[in-house]
Amino acid sequence: MFNILCLFHSRNHTLQQVTLLLRKASLSVLLLSFCALCSLFGCCFSENGPQLSVVAEKTKVVSRRGGNATLPCTILRDQTLAQNRKMRIKWTKLTSDYLKEVDVFVAMDYHKRSYGRFHGRVHLQGSSAMDASLVITEITLEDYGRYKCEVIDGLEDGTAVVSLDLEGVVFPYYPRLGRYNLNFYDAERACHDQDAIVASFDQLYDTWRGGMDWCNAGWLSDGTVQYPINTPREPCGGKNTVPGIRNYGLRDKDKNHYDVFCFTSHYKGRFYYLIQPFKLTYDEAVRACQKDGAQIAKVGQMYAAWKLLGYDRCDAGWLEDGSVRYPISHPRRRCSPTEAAVRFSGFPDKKHKLYGVYCFKGHN
C-alpha cells in the first residue's frame, strides 16, 4: 500500500489518472501494470536498493561450555537517513528443526530485555551505534545452535544468521535397560542425566569425519535417527556400500525406540579415579566419592576428560548410571591395544565388588 501511494507523488499525474489506469488492468496483470507504472513515473525506492542491511562478518563462532562468545552482527544503514531512536534489534535462537524461534534478546533505544535461560547472560557488544553483535556469557550446552539477528528501522529491516559451535565430544549411549529402549524424550533425559545434550547432525558428521564407526542407530536433536559408518560391513548397511552416515529419517518421537548420540563439552571441575584399598560395590562407590567431597562421575564427564583433556586410566570403574568404563588415550597391551577409546564393560550387578570408581568434583 505504501508503494502504491508513492505513485501519487509522480510528476504530472493525478490520483484520478492512476486510479483509472489500475481499474482498467485485470487482476492477473495487476502486478505487471504496477511495475510498468513504477518504470514510467518513478516509485519511492532508493536508486541503490534497500537503505538498511544486516551482515555477519563470521557465520560461525566456536566456544566452549562455561566460556563466552560474541555473535557478530553489523548494521549497514544509509547515512543520509535521520537517526531513529526506535530502531529495534532482536536476537532469536532457531530450533534444530527450524520450525520455531526462541526469543533471546531485544533492544530498542534504552529499553533492553533478555529472555528465559538467557536472562542475565546476554547483552549487546555496542562498540558503535551500528554494532548489533550479541555477547553470550557462561555458555551452556543448550546454547549450541543457530541464532538470528534481526534489525527493524521503520519500514526497513534486515537479518543475518550466525552459528554458535562448541568444542566437545559426541558419544553413543544407551541405559541399563539395553539397546533400542529410548523414545526421543527418553533420549533427551538420558543425555541430560549424563551431563550432555542430544547431538546435532553437524556434530555427528564432524565426529564421523574424525573416524567414529558405530553400528547402532541413535536419535539426533532434529528428530532423525542415524548412525556413522567408516568401515562398511554386512550388518551395518551392507558390505559393498560406501562409508557415510546411515539415515533412517524422521521417526515418531513417542513410539519409536532407539539409542541416542549425546554431546558434551568442557566442564568446570575435576574428574579423577579415586584410589581405594579394595574394590567396591556400586553403593560403596557412591559413598566413597561423597566421602571425598565429590560425586560419582557421569558418562559425559568421562568422555570429556578423555577426549578434551587426554585422560588415560586402565582401571575399570563405576559411573553414575551403573555402568563400568575406563578411558584410554594411549593404546597399549591389555588397555585398548588397537585404538584410543572409552572402554565399556557393561552394566554389571551393582552388588559385585569388582571395580573401582571415577569421581567428579565441581568447581563453582
Automatic annotation (TrEMBL):
Keywords: Disulfide bond, Extracellular matrix, Glycoprotein, Hyaluronic acid, Immunoglobulin domain, Repeat, Secreted. Residues 169-264, 269-361 form the Link domain. SMART domains: IG, IGv, LINK. GO terms for biological process: cell adhesion; central nervous system development; glial cell differentiation; positive regulation of neuroblast proliferation; skeletal system development. It comes from the Eukaryota. GO terms for cellular component: extracellular space; perineuronal net; synapse. Its main location: secreted. One of its GO terms (molecular function) is hyaluronic acid binding. It is found in: Secreted, Extracellular space, Extracellular matrix. Disulfide bonds join 215-236, 314-335. Residues 50-167 form the Ig-like domain. Belongs to the HAPLN family. Stabilizes the aggregates of proteoglycan monomers with hyaluronic acid in the extracellular cartilage matrix. This is Hyaluronan and proteoglycan link protein 1.
